[in-house]
Write a structure and sequence with these properties.
Elements: H1 4-49, H2 54-61
């Protein structure tokens, strides 16, 4: 029969291994997060260099996500969901409010 101290040491060892694994996972997640922060800042700097880009760049760096507004010649997938055109159907000429 194992001793109480032996059981406690085994549990302590398992807990320490779990903490070490979580710390390694945290370091990896922080590195990924830092890359995104750097990428966002870089995009802000690049946009700031374009004509009229100061306002958009400031929003990007501050963490806001400006959405493009519908305009002629703008590809539909670029638009936010609520700005994409409603697809026409065969019965689109019918008024459903009757």
């Amino acid at each position: 029969m194992p001793s109480v101290m032996g059981l406690l040491e085994e549990r302590e060892r398992a807990a320490r291994q779990r903490v070490e694994a979580l710390q390694a996972e945290l370091r990896e997640a922080e590195a990924v997060w830092e890359r995104f922060v750097i990428a966002r800042k870089t995009v802000g700097e690049v946009l700031a260099e374009s004509p009229g880009g100061k306002e958009v760049a400031r929003a990007v760096v501050d963490g806001e996500r400006p959405a493009p507004v519908a305009a002629d010649g703008l590809a539909v997938p670029v638009l936010a969901g609520n700005q994409q055109p409603v697809p026409q159907t065969e019965n689109s000429h019918l008024d459903v409010r009757r």
